[in-house]
Amino acid sequence: MAVVMTNIGYLELFLVFLGFLLLLLLHWHQSRNLPVMNWPLLGMSPSLLCNAHRIHDLVTHCLTQCSTFEFRGPWFTNNNFLVTSDPANVHYMLIKHFSNFQKGSNFKRIFHESLGDGIFVSESDSWATQKRSIQSVLKDGRFQQLFVKTVQEKVEKGLIPILDHVSALEIEVDMQDLFTRFTFDNICIFVLGKDPGVLSIEFREESYVKAFDEIEEAILHRHMLPESCWRLQKWLEIGKERTFSRAIKDVERFIFQCISLKKERLRRKSTRTKEEDEGSFDFLTAYMENDRGESTAGLEISEKFLRDTAVNLLGAGKDTVSAALSWFFWLISTHPLVENKIWEEIIKANNTWEIKDDKNWWIFSAQELRKLVYLHGALCETLRLFPPLPFQHKAPVKADILPSGHKIGPDSKVIFSLYAMGRMESIWGPDCSEFKPERWISEGGGIVHVPSHKFIAFNAGPRSCLGKEMTFIQMKMVAIAIISKYHIQVVEGHPVSPSTSIILHMRHGLKVKVKKRCV
Fold first, then answer.
1. CB of 509 within 8 A of CB of 327?
2. Among the listed residues 381, 357, 389, 384, the one whose alpha carbon sits nearest the alpha carbon of residue 479
3. Which of 119, 135, 416, 479 has its CB surrounded by the most CB atoms within 10 Å?
4. Integer distance in angstroms from the first to the last C-alpha of the chain?
5. 143-170 residues labelled b (16+ CB within 10 A) or e (exposed)
6. What is the rounded distance in angstroms from the CA atom of residue 469 to the CA atom of residue 357?
7. b/e per residue 5-36 (b: at least 16 CB within 10 A)
8. pLDDT tens digits, residue range 2-28?
9. For 98, left (φ over 0), alpha (ψ -120 to 50), or beta?
Protein backbone atom coordinates (compact mmCIF):
# COMPACT_ATOMS: atom_id res chain seq x y z
CA MET A 1 0.00 0.00 0.00
CA ALA A 2 2.83 2.39 0.89
CA VAL A 3 4.52 1.66 -2.45
CA VAL A 4 1.29 2.46 -4.31
CA MET A 5 0.92 5.79 -2.42
CA THR A 6 4.55 6.65 -3.20
CA ASN A 7 3.97 5.95 -6.89
CA ILE A 8 0.85 8.16 -6.84
CA GLY A 9 2.93 10.92 -5.23
CA TYR A 10 5.53 10.66 -7.96
CA LEU A 11 2.79 10.65 -10.58
CA GLU A 12 1.32 13.87 -9.16
CA LEU A 13 4.74 15.54 -9.17
CA PHE A 14 5.29 14.41 -12.75
CA LEU A 15 1.89 15.78 -13.82
CA VAL A 16 2.63 19.12 -12.10
CA PHE A 17 6.01 19.28 -13.85
CA LEU A 18 4.42 18.33 -17.18
CA GLY A 19 1.74 20.98 -16.70
CA PHE A 20 4.37 23.62 -15.95
CA LEU A 21 6.37 22.54 -19.01
CA LEU A 22 3.27 22.79 -21.22
CA LEU A 23 2.51 26.22 -19.76
CA LEU A 24 6.10 27.29 -20.48
CA LEU A 25 5.87 26.01 -24.07
CA LEU A 26 2.53 27.78 -24.53
CA HIS A 27 4.00 31.06 -23.31
CA TRP A 28 7.04 30.56 -25.55
CA HIS A 29 4.76 30.00 -28.54
CA GLN A 30 2.73 33.11 -27.71
CA SER A 31 5.87 35.17 -27.03
CA ARG A 32 7.97 34.18 -30.02
CA ASN A 33 6.75 37.20 -31.98
CA LEU A 34 7.14 39.55 -29.02
CA PRO A 35 10.32 41.64 -28.68
CA VAL A 36 10.88 40.31 -25.11
CA MET A 37 10.25 36.85 -23.69
CA ASN A 38 7.06 36.68 -21.63
CA TRP A 39 7.69 34.14 -18.85
CA PRO A 40 4.98 32.36 -16.80
CA LEU A 41 4.33 34.16 -13.50
CA LEU A 42 7.26 36.55 -13.97
CA GLY A 43 6.16 38.16 -17.24
CA MET A 44 8.85 40.18 -19.03
CA SER A 45 10.51 41.36 -15.81
CA PRO A 46 13.49 38.93 -15.97
CA SER A 47 14.63 40.43 -19.30
CA LEU A 48 14.12 43.94 -17.95
CA LEU A 49 16.09 43.34 -14.74
CA CYS A 50 18.89 41.38 -16.48
CA ASN A 51 19.34 44.26 -18.91
CA ALA A 52 18.83 47.10 -16.42
CA HIS A 53 22.39 48.31 -17.06
CA ARG A 54 21.51 48.83 -20.75
CA ILE A 55 17.80 49.58 -20.39
CA HIS A 56 17.67 52.27 -23.09
CA ASP A 57 19.35 50.05 -25.69
CA LEU A 58 17.05 47.15 -24.78
CA VAL A 59 13.97 49.33 -25.30
CA THR A 60 15.38 50.58 -28.62
CA HIS A 61 15.99 46.99 -29.76
CA CYS A 62 12.41 46.03 -28.86
CA LEU A 63 10.84 49.06 -30.54
CA THR A 64 12.90 48.50 -33.69
CA GLN A 65 11.10 45.16 -34.03
CA CYS A 66 7.69 46.50 -33.05
CA SER A 67 7.07 50.26 -32.73
CA THR A 68 4.37 49.71 -30.08
CA PHE A 69 4.14 46.72 -27.73
CA GLU A 70 2.71 45.83 -24.33
CA PHE A 71 5.19 45.15 -21.55
CA ARG A 72 3.79 42.53 -19.18
CA GLY A 73 4.97 42.50 -15.59
CA PRO A 74 4.69 39.67 -13.05
CA TRP A 75 1.22 38.22 -12.66
CA PHE A 76 -1.07 39.93 -10.14
CA THR A 77 1.22 43.00 -9.80
CA ASN A 78 -0.70 45.33 -12.13
CA ASN A 79 2.63 46.29 -13.74
CA ASN A 80 1.64 46.06 -17.41
CA PHE A 81 2.15 49.08 -19.65
CA LEU A 82 2.37 50.08 -23.29
CA VAL A 83 5.69 51.17 -24.84
CA THR A 84 5.80 53.12 -28.11
CA SER A 85 8.07 55.01 -30.48
CA ASP A 86 5.35 55.72 -33.03
CA PRO A 87 5.24 59.51 -33.77
CA ALA A 88 1.52 59.21 -34.56
CA ASN A 89 0.87 57.90 -31.04
CA VAL A 90 3.06 60.63 -29.53
CA HIS A 91 1.25 63.35 -31.51
CA TYR A 92 -2.10 61.89 -30.43
CA MET A 93 -1.18 61.96 -26.71
CA LEU A 94 0.79 65.21 -26.48
CA ILE A 95 -1.08 67.39 -28.97
CA LYS A 96 -4.28 66.12 -30.60
CA HIS A 97 -5.87 64.59 -27.48
CA PHE A 98 -3.78 66.38 -24.87
CA SER A 99 -6.75 66.87 -22.52
CA ASN A 100 -7.25 63.09 -22.16
CA PHE A 101 -3.62 62.28 -21.34
CA GLN A 102 -2.19 63.26 -17.98
CA LYS A 103 0.71 62.09 -15.83
CA GLY A 104 -1.46 59.49 -14.14
CA SER A 105 -1.63 58.18 -10.58
CA ASN A 106 1.36 55.84 -11.05
CA PHE A 107 3.60 58.75 -12.08
CA LYS A 108 2.53 60.77 -9.07
CA ARG A 109 3.19 57.91 -6.65
CA ILE A 110 6.70 57.48 -8.09
CA PHE A 111 7.63 61.17 -8.20
CA HIS A 112 5.60 62.86 -5.46
CA GLU A 113 8.20 62.56 -2.69
CA SER A 114 10.78 64.36 -4.82
CA LEU A 115 8.79 66.74 -7.04
CA GLY A 116 5.86 67.34 -4.69
CA ASP A 117 3.10 69.31 -6.41
CA GLY A 118 5.46 71.16 -8.76
CA ILE A 119 4.85 71.85 -12.42
CA PHE A 120 6.17 68.49 -13.65
CA VAL A 121 3.64 66.57 -11.54
CA SER A 122 0.67 68.94 -11.42
CA GLU A 123 -2.31 68.79 -13.77
CA SER A 124 -5.17 70.95 -15.05
CA ASP A 125 -5.64 74.33 -13.32
CA SER A 126 -2.63 73.96 -11.01
CA TRP A 127 -0.34 73.17 -13.94
CA ALA A 128 -1.76 76.03 -16.05
CA THR A 129 -1.28 78.53 -13.21
CA GLN A 130 2.28 77.41 -12.51
CA LYS A 131 3.11 77.51 -16.22
CA ARG A 132 1.78 81.06 -16.46
CA SER A 133 3.77 82.23 -13.42
CA ILE A 134 7.02 80.65 -14.67
CA GLN A 135 6.56 82.20 -18.12
CA SER A 136 6.03 85.56 -16.46
CA VAL A 137 9.39 85.33 -14.67
CA LEU A 138 11.25 84.07 -17.75
CA LYS A 139 9.96 86.99 -19.83
CA ASP A 140 10.84 89.60 -17.21
CA GLY A 141 13.69 91.85 -18.38
CA ARG A 142 15.35 91.67 -14.96
CA PHE A 143 15.50 87.88 -15.10
CA GLN A 144 16.82 87.88 -18.68
CA GLN A 145 19.54 90.30 -17.58
CA LEU A 146 20.43 87.97 -14.68
CA PHE A 147 20.51 84.97 -17.03
CA VAL A 148 22.93 86.45 -19.58
CA LYS A 149 25.17 88.00 -16.91
CA THR A 150 25.37 84.77 -14.89
CA VAL A 151 26.17 82.46 -17.81
CA GLN A 152 28.86 84.80 -19.15
CA GLU A 153 30.49 85.18 -15.73
CA LYS A 154 30.40 81.44 -15.01
CA VAL A 155 32.05 80.72 -18.35
CA GLU A 156 34.66 83.46 -18.02
CA LYS A 157 35.46 83.09 -14.30
CA GLY A 158 34.57 79.44 -13.79
CA LEU A 159 34.94 77.16 -16.82
CA ILE A 160 37.84 78.87 -18.60
CA PRO A 161 40.17 79.14 -15.56
CA ILE A 162 39.62 75.44 -14.77
CA LEU A 163 40.28 74.40 -18.38
CA ASP A 164 43.39 76.61 -18.43
CA HIS A 165 44.51 74.92 -15.21
CA VAL A 166 44.08 71.31 -16.37
CA SER A 167 45.55 72.17 -19.77
CA ALA A 168 48.68 73.68 -18.23
CA LEU A 169 49.17 70.67 -15.93
CA GLU A 170 48.28 68.21 -18.72
CA ILE A 171 45.95 66.30 -16.40
CA GLU A 172 42.65 64.55 -17.08
CA VAL A 173 39.34 66.16 -16.19
CA ASP A 174 35.79 64.79 -16.11
CA MET A 175 33.85 67.14 -18.40
CA GLN A 176 30.51 65.75 -17.24
CA ASP A 177 31.38 66.64 -13.64
CA LEU A 178 32.55 70.06 -14.82
CA PHE A 179 29.32 70.74 -16.73
CA THR A 180 27.20 69.52 -13.82
CA ARG A 181 28.94 71.99 -11.51
CA PHE A 182 28.56 74.76 -14.09
CA THR A 183 24.83 74.22 -14.62
CA PHE A 184 24.15 73.66 -10.91
CA ASP A 185 25.72 77.00 -9.96
CA ASN A 186 23.76 78.69 -12.75
CA ILE A 187 20.35 77.20 -11.96
CA CYS A 188 20.79 77.90 -8.23
CA ILE A 189 21.40 81.57 -9.04
CA PHE A 190 18.38 81.67 -11.40
CA VAL A 191 16.00 79.91 -8.98
CA LEU A 192 17.32 80.53 -5.47
CA GLY A 193 19.41 83.66 -5.90
CA LYS A 194 22.36 81.81 -4.35
CA ASP A 195 25.66 80.79 -5.92
CA PRO A 196 26.83 77.56 -4.20
CA GLY A 197 30.21 77.93 -5.92
CA VAL A 198 30.76 74.22 -6.67
CA LEU A 199 32.41 75.19 -9.98
CA SER A 200 35.95 75.76 -8.77
CA ILE A 201 39.47 74.43 -9.28
CA GLU A 202 39.20 72.71 -5.87
CA PHE A 203 36.26 70.55 -7.16
CA ARG A 204 34.59 70.77 -3.76
CA GLU A 205 32.08 67.98 -3.08
CA GLU A 206 28.63 68.83 -1.71
CA SER A 207 26.17 66.13 -0.66
CA TYR A 208 23.15 68.01 -2.02
CA VAL A 209 24.62 68.05 -5.56
CA LYS A 210 25.20 64.30 -5.58
CA ALA A 211 21.76 63.81 -4.01
CA PHE A 212 20.02 64.86 -7.23
CA ASP A 213 21.76 62.03 -9.13
CA GLU A 214 20.84 59.52 -6.42
CA ILE A 215 17.20 60.58 -6.57
CA GLU A 216 17.12 60.15 -10.36
CA GLU A 217 18.64 56.65 -10.20
CA ALA A 218 16.17 55.57 -7.52
CA ILE A 219 13.23 56.88 -9.57
CA LEU A 220 14.25 54.80 -12.61
CA HIS A 221 14.56 51.84 -10.22
CA ARG A 222 10.93 52.45 -9.23
CA HIS A 223 9.91 52.38 -12.90
CA MET A 224 11.46 48.92 -13.40
CA LEU A 225 10.04 47.23 -10.28
CA PRO A 226 6.43 46.45 -9.33
CA GLU A 227 5.19 49.09 -6.91
CA SER A 228 4.82 46.53 -4.12
CA CYS A 229 8.56 45.73 -4.39
CA TRP A 230 9.90 49.26 -4.14
CA ARG A 231 7.39 50.11 -1.40
CA LEU A 232 8.65 47.10 0.57
CA GLN A 233 12.23 48.32 0.12
CA LYS A 234 11.13 51.74 1.32
CA TRP A 235 9.45 50.26 4.39
CA LEU A 236 12.52 48.14 5.17
CA GLU A 237 14.83 51.10 4.41
CA ILE A 238 17.09 49.09 2.12
CA GLY A 239 18.63 49.40 -1.35
CA LYS A 240 17.87 52.35 -3.60
CA GLU A 241 14.97 53.44 -1.39
CA ARG A 242 17.25 54.01 1.58
CA THR A 243 19.54 56.16 -0.59
CA PHE A 244 16.49 57.95 -2.01
CA SER A 245 15.18 58.94 1.44
CA ARG A 246 18.58 60.28 2.53
CA ALA A 247 19.05 62.19 -0.75
CA ILE A 248 15.63 63.87 -0.41
CA LYS A 249 16.61 65.12 3.05
CA ASP A 250 19.93 66.52 1.72
CA VAL A 251 18.18 68.40 -1.08
CA GLU A 252 15.44 69.76 1.19
CA ARG A 253 17.95 70.90 3.79
CA PHE A 254 19.79 72.91 1.14
CA ILE A 255 16.62 74.41 -0.36
CA PHE A 256 15.02 75.40 2.95
CA GLN A 257 18.28 77.04 3.99
CA CYS A 258 18.20 79.10 0.77
CA ILE A 259 14.56 80.04 1.37
CA SER A 260 15.41 81.22 4.88
CA LEU A 261 18.36 83.29 3.62
CA LYS A 262 16.20 84.80 0.89
CA LYS A 263 13.52 85.83 3.41
CA GLU A 264 16.14 87.54 5.55
CA ARG A 265 17.62 89.28 2.51
CA LEU A 266 14.23 90.58 1.38
CA ARG A 267 13.52 91.88 4.91
CA ARG A 268 16.72 93.93 4.66
CA LYS A 269 15.92 95.13 1.15
CA SER A 270 15.08 98.65 2.27
CA THR A 271 18.70 99.14 3.29
CA ARG A 272 20.10 97.87 -0.01
CA THR A 273 21.17 100.13 -2.87
CA LYS A 274 19.73 100.00 -6.36
CA GLU A 275 23.05 98.70 -7.68
CA GLU A 276 22.98 95.79 -5.20
CA ASP A 277 19.49 94.74 -6.33
CA GLU A 278 20.19 95.16 -10.03
CA GLY A 279 20.32 91.83 -11.85
CA SER A 280 19.20 89.80 -8.81
CA PHE A 281 15.68 88.95 -9.91
CA ASP A 282 15.48 85.17 -9.35
CA PHE A 283 12.42 82.90 -8.97
CA LEU A 284 12.39 83.02 -5.16
CA THR A 285 12.50 86.81 -5.26
CA ALA A 286 9.66 86.94 -7.81
CA TYR A 287 7.41 84.63 -5.79
CA MET A 288 8.23 85.95 -2.33
CA GLU A 289 7.70 89.55 -3.36
CA ASN A 290 4.51 88.29 -4.98
CA ASP A 291 4.64 90.97 -7.68
CA ARG A 292 3.60 88.69 -10.52
CA GLY A 293 0.04 90.05 -10.42
CA GLU A 294 -2.45 87.86 -12.29
CA SER A 295 0.26 85.30 -13.10
CA THR A 296 0.28 84.05 -9.48
CA ALA A 297 -3.47 84.21 -8.96
CA GLY A 298 -4.60 80.93 -7.43
CA LEU A 299 -1.15 80.03 -6.06
CA GLU A 300 -0.50 79.83 -2.33
CA ILE A 301 3.11 81.00 -1.94
CA SER A 302 3.88 78.73 1.02
CA GLU A 303 7.23 77.20 1.95
CA LYS A 304 6.01 73.90 0.47
CA PHE A 305 5.19 75.62 -2.82
CA LEU A 306 8.61 77.28 -2.88
CA ARG A 307 10.28 73.94 -2.06
CA ASP A 308 8.38 72.07 -4.80
CA THR A 309 9.02 74.78 -7.38
CA ALA A 310 12.73 74.87 -6.52
CA VAL A 311 13.18 71.08 -6.79
CA ASN A 312 11.37 70.97 -10.14
CA LEU A 313 13.36 73.85 -11.66
CA LEU A 314 16.71 72.82 -10.16
CA GLY A 315 16.32 69.29 -11.49
CA ALA A 316 15.40 70.52 -14.95
CA GLY A 317 18.13 73.15 -15.17
CA LYS A 318 20.98 71.18 -13.60
CA ASP A 319 20.76 67.86 -15.36
CA THR A 320 19.33 68.37 -18.82
CA VAL A 321 21.86 70.98 -19.95
CA SER A 322 24.88 69.25 -18.37
CA ALA A 323 23.92 65.88 -19.89
CA ALA A 324 23.42 67.43 -23.34
CA LEU A 325 26.77 69.26 -23.20
CA SER A 326 28.59 66.08 -22.13
CA TRP A 327 27.23 64.07 -25.07
CA PHE A 328 27.85 66.99 -27.45
CA PHE A 329 31.55 67.22 -26.60
CA TRP A 330 31.94 63.44 -26.77
CA LEU A 331 30.36 63.41 -30.22
CA ILE A 332 32.45 66.24 -31.66
CA SER A 333 35.63 64.79 -30.13
CA THR A 334 34.92 61.56 -31.99
CA HIS A 335 33.91 63.45 -35.16
CA PRO A 336 36.80 65.89 -35.77
CA LEU A 337 35.37 67.09 -39.10
CA VAL A 338 32.25 68.30 -37.31
CA GLU A 339 34.35 70.02 -34.64
CA ASN A 340 36.40 71.76 -37.33
CA LYS A 341 33.28 72.99 -39.15
CA ILE A 342 31.91 74.46 -35.92
CA TRP A 343 35.24 76.16 -35.21
CA GLU A 344 35.36 77.61 -38.74
CA GLU A 345 31.78 78.90 -38.37
CA ILE A 346 32.69 80.62 -35.08
CA ILE A 347 35.81 82.25 -36.57
CA LYS A 348 33.95 83.38 -39.66
CA ALA A 349 31.10 84.82 -37.60
CA ASN A 350 33.53 86.68 -35.34
CA ASN A 351 35.27 88.25 -38.35
CA THR A 352 31.96 89.19 -39.98
CA TRP A 353 30.18 90.82 -37.06
CA GLU A 354 31.19 93.77 -34.94
CA ILE A 355 34.74 93.71 -33.65
CA LYS A 356 35.05 92.67 -30.02
CA ASP A 357 37.97 93.12 -27.66
CA ASP A 358 40.46 90.27 -27.28
CA LYS A 359 39.12 89.28 -23.87
CA ASN A 360 35.43 88.90 -24.77
CA TRP A 361 35.53 88.08 -28.47
CA TRP A 362 33.78 84.72 -27.77
CA ILE A 363 30.68 86.48 -26.35
CA PHE A 364 27.87 86.63 -28.91
CA SER A 365 24.46 88.26 -28.60
CA ALA A 366 21.30 86.12 -28.75
CA GLN A 367 20.69 87.37 -32.29
CA GLU A 368 24.24 86.43 -33.34
CA LEU A 369 23.91 82.99 -31.75
CA ARG A 370 20.85 82.22 -33.89
CA LYS A 371 22.95 82.70 -37.03
CA LEU A 372 25.37 79.90 -36.08
CA VAL A 373 23.45 77.33 -38.10
CA TYR A 374 25.96 74.47 -38.10
CA LEU A 375 26.46 74.70 -34.33
CA HIS A 376 22.68 74.65 -33.87
CA GLY A 377 22.44 71.59 -36.10
CA ALA A 378 25.14 69.79 -34.11
CA LEU A 379 23.32 70.50 -30.84
CA CYS A 380 19.99 69.29 -32.26
CA GLU A 381 21.69 66.14 -33.56
CA THR A 382 23.11 65.54 -30.08
CA LEU A 383 19.65 65.92 -28.53
CA ARG A 384 18.20 63.55 -31.14
CA LEU A 385 20.65 60.76 -30.32
CA PHE A 386 21.02 61.46 -26.59
CA PRO A 387 17.92 63.23 -25.25
CA PRO A 388 18.52 64.25 -21.60
CA LEU A 389 15.11 62.80 -20.68
CA PRO A 390 15.19 59.43 -22.47
CA PHE A 391 11.55 58.53 -21.85
CA GLN A 392 8.22 59.97 -20.73
CA HIS A 393 4.95 58.42 -19.73
CA LYS A 394 1.30 59.34 -19.92
CA ALA A 395 -1.99 57.88 -18.70
CA PRO A 396 -5.44 58.41 -20.27
CA VAL A 397 -8.21 59.91 -18.15
CA LYS A 398 -10.75 57.91 -20.15
CA ALA A 399 -10.37 54.74 -22.21
CA ASP A 400 -8.93 55.49 -25.63
CA ILE A 401 -7.57 53.93 -28.83
CA LEU A 402 -4.18 55.06 -30.14
CA PRO A 403 -3.55 55.58 -33.87
CA SER A 404 -1.56 52.31 -33.83
CA GLY A 405 -4.82 50.53 -32.94
CA HIS A 406 -3.88 49.70 -29.35
CA LYS A 407 -6.69 50.03 -26.81
CA ILE A 408 -5.78 51.59 -23.46
CA GLY A 409 -7.85 51.73 -20.30
CA PRO A 410 -8.27 54.64 -17.87
CA ASP A 411 -5.10 55.45 -15.89
CA SER A 412 -3.10 52.76 -17.71
CA LYS A 413 0.54 53.63 -18.29
CA VAL A 414 1.90 54.48 -21.75
CA ILE A 415 5.66 55.04 -22.09
CA PHE A 416 7.27 56.61 -25.14
CA SER A 417 11.01 56.38 -25.57
CA LEU A 418 12.72 59.52 -26.86
CA TYR A 419 16.01 57.62 -26.96
CA ALA A 420 14.55 54.95 -29.24
CA MET A 421 12.72 57.47 -31.44
CA GLY A 422 16.04 59.13 -32.27
CA ARG A 423 17.26 55.79 -33.60
CA MET A 424 14.26 54.81 -35.74
CA GLU A 425 14.85 54.39 -39.49
CA SER A 426 11.16 55.07 -40.08
CA ILE A 427 11.62 58.60 -38.66
CA TRP A 428 15.19 59.59 -39.56
CA GLY A 429 16.09 57.34 -42.49
CA PRO A 430 18.73 54.62 -42.96
CA ASP A 431 21.50 56.84 -41.51
CA CYS A 432 19.59 57.32 -38.23
CA SER A 433 22.47 55.99 -36.12
CA GLU A 434 24.97 58.46 -37.58
CA PHE A 435 25.89 61.84 -36.10
CA LYS A 436 25.13 64.22 -39.00
CA PRO A 437 24.46 67.89 -38.17
CA GLU A 438 23.82 68.40 -41.90
CA ARG A 439 20.40 66.73 -41.59
CA TRP A 440 19.26 69.86 -39.74
CA ILE A 441 20.40 72.30 -42.43
CA SER A 442 18.32 73.09 -45.50
CA GLU A 443 19.67 73.60 -49.03
CA GLY A 444 19.23 77.33 -48.48
CA GLY A 445 21.45 77.23 -45.38
CA GLY A 446 18.68 77.58 -42.80
CA ILE A 447 17.51 75.29 -40.00
CA VAL A 448 15.24 72.41 -41.06
CA HIS A 449 11.99 72.35 -39.09
CA VAL A 450 11.19 68.94 -37.62
CA PRO A 451 7.74 68.47 -36.02
CA SER A 452 7.97 68.41 -32.23
CA HIS A 453 6.21 65.02 -31.99
CA LYS A 454 9.14 63.48 -33.91
CA PHE A 455 11.92 65.46 -32.23
CA ILE A 456 10.62 65.70 -28.68
CA ALA A 457 13.74 66.57 -26.71
CA PHE A 458 11.79 69.65 -25.58
CA ASN A 459 8.45 67.84 -25.33
CA ALA A 460 5.52 68.76 -27.59
CA GLY A 461 2.14 70.43 -27.36
CA PRO A 462 0.99 72.54 -24.39
CA ARG A 463 3.64 70.98 -22.12
CA SER A 464 6.54 72.00 -24.36
CA CYS A 465 9.67 73.08 -22.47
CA LEU A 466 9.43 76.69 -21.29
CA GLY A 467 13.20 77.08 -21.18
CA LYS A 468 14.01 75.83 -24.69
CA GLU A 469 15.45 79.13 -25.93
CA MET A 470 17.49 79.63 -22.75
CA THR A 471 18.82 76.08 -23.03
CA PHE A 472 20.11 76.66 -26.55
CA ILE A 473 21.67 80.01 -25.60
CA GLN A 474 23.48 78.49 -22.61
CA MET A 475 24.75 75.48 -24.60
CA LYS A 476 25.92 77.66 -27.50
CA MET A 477 27.78 80.06 -25.20
CA VAL A 478 29.62 77.15 -23.57
CA ALA A 479 30.34 75.46 -26.92
CA ILE A 480 31.74 78.66 -28.46
CA ALA A 481 33.94 79.46 -25.47
CA ILE A 482 35.44 75.95 -25.33
CA ILE A 483 35.74 75.11 -29.04
CA SER A 484 37.30 78.47 -29.91
CA LYS A 485 39.99 78.13 -27.23
CA TYR A 486 40.57 74.41 -26.66
CA HIS A 487 40.69 71.00 -28.28
CA ILE A 488 38.97 68.29 -26.22
CA GLN A 489 40.32 64.74 -26.55
CA VAL A 490 38.64 61.78 -24.84
CA VAL A 491 41.09 59.69 -22.82
CA GLU A 492 42.00 56.55 -24.75
CA GLY A 493 40.07 53.52 -23.55
CA HIS A 494 37.59 55.54 -21.50
CA PRO A 495 34.22 53.69 -21.56
CA VAL A 496 31.22 55.72 -22.66
CA SER A 497 27.66 54.47 -22.13
CA PRO A 498 24.36 55.84 -20.78
CA SER A 499 23.73 55.59 -17.06
CA THR A 500 20.76 53.81 -15.50
CA SER A 501 18.81 56.91 -14.57
CA ILE A 502 15.84 58.98 -15.67
CA ILE A 503 18.44 61.50 -16.90
CA LEU A 504 20.75 60.34 -19.70
CA HIS A 505 24.06 60.98 -17.97
CA MET A 506 27.23 59.12 -18.93
CA ARG A 507 27.72 56.13 -16.64
CA HIS A 508 31.47 56.71 -16.18
CA GLY A 509 31.60 60.45 -16.82
CA LEU A 510 33.63 61.94 -19.68
CA LYS A 511 37.37 61.83 -18.93
CA VAL A 512 39.30 64.06 -21.34
CA LYS A 513 42.60 65.79 -21.95
CA VAL A 514 42.37 69.52 -22.75
CA LYS A 515 44.79 71.21 -25.13
CA LYS A 516 44.85 74.90 -25.99
CA ARG A 517 43.99 75.50 -29.61
CA CYS A 518 46.64 77.12 -31.81
CA VAL A 519 44.88 79.92 -33.69
1. no
2. 381
3. 416
4. 98
5. beebbbebbeebbeebbbebbeebbeee
6. 27
7. eeeeeeeeeeeeeeeeeeeeeebeeeeeebbb
8. 544 455 555 565 555 555 445 444 444
9. alpha
